[in-house]
Design a protein that fits this description.
alpha+beta, four-stranded antiparallel β-sheet, eleven-stranded mixed β-sheet
Length: 317
């Protein structure tokens, strides 16, 4: 069998913890020059920006910068930095709780995305950690929603990533969350909620179907006061928005949720008031590489519970 060709190492370093874009030219095609291919391949970038990048030696091949009239070379590798729109800085600290040769565990604030996606690229936990810890190969072991605060795990070495991702895939990580929502004395708790959840690409809200369950959550009431409840949530599966959807289905939407039960207008990018009151509070697992028992716990609290009057003020994470 022919061995699959491996991608060569990028001649461009990461910038602010973000990898350069990599393109491989097709093995055949009608383009006379690299420029002609790029203009067709990158219509949203536009011919003018492609020309500017070529003149500025911003597009690089294995042998150095690509010249404006360089002939098309089938199978050649190219790298360049993507133009990112200016992002609003998320003014909350990303706290490193643990770091060793295999794992980095952090306490993520509300509003900070875990990994680059959509309009959040540099203002993400992954980019901050790669840049700040000088770990360019760092990768996520799992994903935590941008609006959810708390524990997130990252893998230091690419060759270890599969072992930690398998823990989450096989449900071998015991996760707990805390949430603040309304208190309903008529609702019997604790209880286990099961439903069939689907999340369509490009649609903000997930939904539940009348079908065999593919999600399961345990909901416990820890305490209550002044019409609010402080809840412990234990997801026994990992569907997108699972806890938020299950709490809403119980008639207890989590405070600050802009999607459930109703999708609200998106706030301004610099509006950090009233964060979603959902916190990934602890993770526990057997380390697949060392065999050690691991337990990590957040240092964060939910402001709607600890400081209800200040929750709607500036900040909140």
């Amino acid at each position: 069998m022919r061995r699959k060709n491996r991608r060569p190492a990028s001649p461009l370093p990461q910038r602010n913890g973000v990898d350069p874009v990599h393109l491989r030219l097709p093995l055949e095609g009608p383009w006379p020059t690299v420029r002609a291919y790029l203009v067709e391949r990158l219509p949203t970038v536009g011919a003018e920006r492609v020309d500017e990048a070529l003149r500025g030696r911003e597009i690089v091949g294995e042998e150095g910068p690509v010249a404006p009239e360089e002939p098309f070379r089938p199978g050649a590798h190219l790298w360049f930095y993507r133009d990112h729109p200016e992002e609003v800085h998320v003014p909350f600290e990303l706290v490193v709780l643990h770091r060793d040769e295999h794992l980095v565990v952090v306490d993520k604030p509300h509003f900070l995305a875990t990994t680059p996606r959509g309009r959040h690229v540099i203002e993400t936990a992954l980019s901050r950690l790669r840049h700040g810890l000088e770990l360019p190969a760092l990768s996520p072991a799992h994903r935590l929603d941008r609006l959810t605060a708390g524990l997130a795990m990252f893998v230091v070495r690419p060759e270890d990533r599969g072992a930690y991702q398998t823990l989450f895939r096989d449900r071998l990580v015991r996760k707990e969350y805390r949430a603040v929502a309304a208190y309903d004395p008529a609702l019997e708790l604790p209880r286990t909620v099961r439903s069939h959840i689907v999340k369509e690409r490009g649609v903000i809200a997930a939904r539940e179907l009348d079908a065999p369950p593919n999600s399961e959550s345990r909901v416990d009431l820890l305490t209550h006061r002044d019409g609010l409840g402080h809840y412990r949530l234990r997801p026994l599966s990992g569907r997108t928005h699972q806890l938020r959807l299950h709490m809403s289905g119980l008639g207890l939407p989590i405070l600050g949720d802009p999607v459930y039960p109703v999708v609200l207008p998106e706030p301004a990018p610099d509006d950090f008031r009233r964060p979603l009151q959902l916190l990934a509070s602890s993770v526990e697992f057997t380390d697949p590489l060392t065999g050690r028992e691991r337990y990590f716990e957040t240092r964060r609290t939910l402001r709607a519970w600890t400081d209800p009057d200040g929750w709607a003020g500036e900040g909140g994470s």
